[in-house]
Amino acid sequence: MRFLVAGLNYRTASTELLERVSVNDRALPGLLLQLQKQLGEALVLSTCNRTEVYTTGEDLEIARVRLMQELADMAGLGEEEASAVAYVYEGDDAVRHAIRVTCGLDSMVIGEHQIAGQVQTALRLAGETGSVDTPLSRLFHFALRSSRRIREATGIGRSRLTVSSIGVQLVERGVGSLTDRRVLLVGAGETGKLAARTLGRMGAGRLTVAGRNAERTERIATELGGDWVLRDDLTSAIASADVVISATAASDILITADMVMEARGDSEDSLVMLDLAMPRDIDPAVEDMPGVTLYGLPDLQAIADEHRAERSDAAAEAEKIIEKDVPRFNESLTALATEPVIRALGAHAEEIRLRELQNGLRRLEGLSEEQRDVIESLTRSVVSKILADPITFLRTRDDDEAASAVSRLFGLPDAEVEVIEGDDH
Question: Which residues are catalytic?
Answer without folding.
Answer: 48
